[in-house]
Amino acid sequence: MPHGTPGGALFKGILFFPYLINGVAIGFVFLYFFQEGGTFDTVLKLFGVGGEHLWLGDPDLVNYSLAGVSVWRYMGLNFVLFLGGIQSIAPELYEAAELDGANRWQQFRFIIVPSLRPLIGLTAILAISGCLSVFEIPYIMTGGAGASETFVIQTIKLAFRFDKTGLASAAAVVLLVIILLVAWVQRRIVPEERVTP
């Protein structure tokens, strides 16, 4: 969105706002939203999709429902990050590309994507580590039932429900190792560009 777009700052603020809301509050709001016969079913009926769905109780639907909540929550953050990255690209690069006859796709491929490589790597690490360590939204909405139990929920249950703190600590260390391994793989795939004097 260009700098001079009317209402651009307001639009970015509205889109970014869900990221600022506490995860527990989001869990309770969407718990009501996804209730059988609740808000989401009512909205679907307006579009001609009838019937009531057990969104959080059906093992085939629960993970899609939880993923939709996470996408809604973090989409604004990623949008603002990528928009800032695109706006930081020097306009002279676009002008030079147009003079050389580059079309929009070529500008995207050879200017925008290479300029955003560090940001793409960062968001990939944040997304993967967030997926591995997600806790509050699935715990509030399902308690880990119906095929929605995450690694962290299982670790919490080991520690506090089954009183296996040693095993829970080992699981937490395994999670840390997995995240570090993912970060290492990402750094190997998308190496950090060095600026030569």
Keywords summarizing the entry:
single chain, flat, MetI-like fold, 197 residues, mainly alpha
Proportion of residues in extended strands: under 5%
Quickly name the level 1 CATH class: Mainly Alpha
- Low-confidence stretches are none
- The CATH homologous superfamily is called MetI-like
Whole-angstrom Rg: 22 Å
Helical segment count = 10
Give a short synopsis of this structure.
The chain is an all-alpha fold and about 200 residues long. The chain contains 10 helices and no strands.
Descriptive account of the structure:
The protein is mostly helical. The chain has one domain (11-189): MetI-like (MetI-like fold, Orthogonal Bundle), CATH 1.10.3720.10. Helix content is 70%, strand content 0%. It has 10 helices and no strands. Helix 1 (8-20) packs across helix 4, helix 7 (117-133) packs antiparallel against helix 10 (165-189) and helix 9 (151-161) runs antiparallel to helix 10 (165-189). The model has no long low-confidence stretch (mean pLDDT 85).
Fold blueprint:
Blueprint: H1 8-20, H2 23-33, H3 39-46, H4 62-87, H5 91-99, H6 104-115, H7 117-133, H8 136-141, H9 151-161, H10 165-189
Helix pairs in contact: 1-4, 7-10, 9-10
